[in-house]
Amino acid sequence: MRQEDPVANHADTPDATAPHDASAMRRAIALASRGLGSTSPNPVVGCVITDRAGTVVGEGWHQRAGGPHAEVHALRAAGEAARGGTAYVTLEPCNHTGRTGPCAQALVAAGISRVVYAVADPNPQASGGAATLRAAGVTAEGGLLEAEAEAGNTAWLTSVRLGRPHVTWKYAATLDGRSAAADGSSRWITSPESRADVHRLRAESDAVLVGGGTLRADDPHLAVRGIEGATQPLRIALDTHAGLLPTARILDDAAPTLLVVGEDADTRHLPDAELLRLPLHDGRIGVHDLLARLHYRGVRSLLLEGGPALAGAFLEGAAVDRIIGYIAPALLGAGPAALADAGVTNISQALRLDITEAVRMGPDLRITAVPATATTAPKEH
């Protein structure tokens, strides 16, 4: 990873940051979020440009992979008013030519005199934008609202740093932790408000994953509904022995579908399905084998909607980055738990979490948490 120039962060402490700098960067972070679910394998990025007097004259965000970057959209909106102004960008301007040109050079050409960015680019192929700006006489400062910008771009940053997609495990359960009743019925544990929020999560994700148990029990559809203009995620069915029926709803044309099976699975009854064959480890597909292949395919954010066994395998493999639980104010007393075996046999091995948010969803409670700092290496499963 490139070492950050120490002069880049001098002006980024709270004492040295002007209030209008923070306000402009927060706006850029909000703009970046509009690209969630439609920019992979690229990051989400927002940009705000102010003129010499500090007035906002241009805004933009990265809208889709292969399209103009956030800085280009903002520069087009600002026009000549950008000359001598400041650009606030959530990610260090890129320094390479891919499907689009380098944003660092575009900022220089537009006459921008100062660039403030939140997060240094960890991608060695694109980093170095700040150095290019400084070499051209542009003031470049990094680190403003870094934590907030990282949170909004966590999927892409995880993929660059770890070489795998960022994984969110979503589940719904009653207050006593049951994901279904004793007879297996589970519709509907949570409220319409919670179910609508799940569609938002799908729309912000590159892919949605379920396992064979969920496929057989619920015949899920997994496509996004109720969100206009949403990019449909890749629907992934992890079905080791290809027991999926050709009539399964996940195989319709509402969204792309990938069926992940064992190397020797008989798939002759699924002639039109896109297949990914992976080796089995103790009869199961390895979590990290799957994640590596999805990363190679361009998946940067994965929403895990499978049942308790699939969630347990990902947690045991230390491959869950965020947990979102929709907790309904109901009690069942019996039935399957939301989480099955995750490799924990003693209370000292409990997977400790840090709660980052707790909000009401109609009558339900949505809790968002992230794993506390890991102290052991991940186990393959």
Automatic annotation (TrEMBL):
Gene expressing this chain: ribD
Active site: E71
Residues binding NADP(+): A172, W188, T214, D218, T240, G307, P308, A309, L310, A311, G312, A313
Enzyme Commission (EC) number: 3.5.4.26, 1.1.1.193
Cofactors (names): Zn(2+)
A single BP term in Gene Ontology: riboflavin biosynthetic process
One term of GO molecular function: diaminohydroxyphosphoribosylaminopyrimidine deaminase activity
Signal peptide start and end residues: none
Cofactor note: Binds 1 zinc ion.
CDD domains xrefs: Riboflavin_deaminase-reductase
Name the UniProt record assigns to this protein: Riboflavin biosynthesis protein RibD
UniProt binding sites for substrate: S186, R202, L222, R225, E305
SUPFAM superfamilies: Cytidine deaminase-like, Dihydrofolate reductase-like
Residue positions binding Zn(2+): H69, C94, C103
Region (Disordered): 1-22
Superkingdom of origin organism: Bacteria
